[in-house]
Amino acid sequence: MIKASRWHALDTLLILIKGAVCIVAIVALVVFWQSMIFFFLAIFATVFCLDFGIRQRRNYVSSLNSALRIVSQTGVPMGTAAQAFSKSGPLRRQCEDYTKRLASGEDPLDAAVASQLPLEISTAISMQMPGNPIKAPTHRQQNHRDTATRRTQTLSISCQFFYLIFVSLFSVAALAFFSQFIIPQLDSIYAEFGRSSLVKVSPLPTGLVIKVLSLLSLFLIFLPLLLSYGLGLRFLPKHWIPLLPCQAKPNADALTAIAEGVDAGWPLQKIVLLGQKISRGQQKQSFTKAVESIKSGESSTNAIKNAGWISVNEAAWLDGTPPQRMTQLMRTISRQNLQTADANVNWLVALLFPAVVLLIAAIIAPIAYAFFANLYTLILTLS
Questions:
Q1: In whole angstroms, what separates CA 245 from the centre of its chain?
Q2: I need a surface site. Which of 101, 145, 259, 283 has the fewest CB within 10 A?
Q3: Residue 326: other Cβ atoms inside 10 A
């Protein structure tokens, strides 16, 4: 076993490395802003650190919630799980504060909210029912398998984007080197032999080609952030955007948590009030809409629909169904929406990957042809 001090040292070292990379990237942006290669490499390094930090935090949040559910269902003190996560990781400060509040005698749920601990709804329900595990373990095992499959697909998609980014940045570097060093040398050699000029390098100016490839690189760097985290989606019309995982995942989590709460015998109003208490950001607004709909006397199905977790057609499936059937349908809807979102991303990547490769090839091919044509002409002249 590695001691807690070593875990803390390793975690601090990781944070220092990420901070150093970000600082170097920012300095490169300021110093080398006129150099396109260093500029885009700095942007790529910054985005990579941001993506790594978000993924690391999500993994810790998932592990923390799993641990809290286990200890709440087995009767073990909640502070044991929080104390383990207070040694290292991006949640160590929240977990440390949570451990201190529990030691002072605060209610576990109130202490978690005060410590800004990122709880899931199912975890909060387990904390309200200590020693009484939430039913439907089969569904949870299925969710774990689906999550593992989705992470594998996400890793595959990320590798494809990294490949495209590398190819586009390498193309920019190669063209910049070609225009700065190769073309002047060929011009001087041609001038010595009395030739007027080179074969036309490209239908477009080399500078314009470099700018086009640079914009393509910038697009490829930020597109994974848009697909994975929804950055910038709020500025686009909704009917332009297919269902993406960043949109389907929060809705699926809410539906699954509501289904688990209903299976545990909780009324919908108590579940959404609990969700409103522990949630933040956009998810808190959704729970607030559900609470307002229930207080205004609307049905459970309309409250879920008004919160934005289901569509009008999906609400028709749930309307009038008994609680047990409703929970099954909510789990089915959440699983289908996640599968649809993953299929949409795979479809976009399947179209984008060959399109980008062909675009880069179409840009580079005339330049490569011109280079070898000039080289062939030069060899014939020398012979």
A1: 9
A2: 145
A3: 21
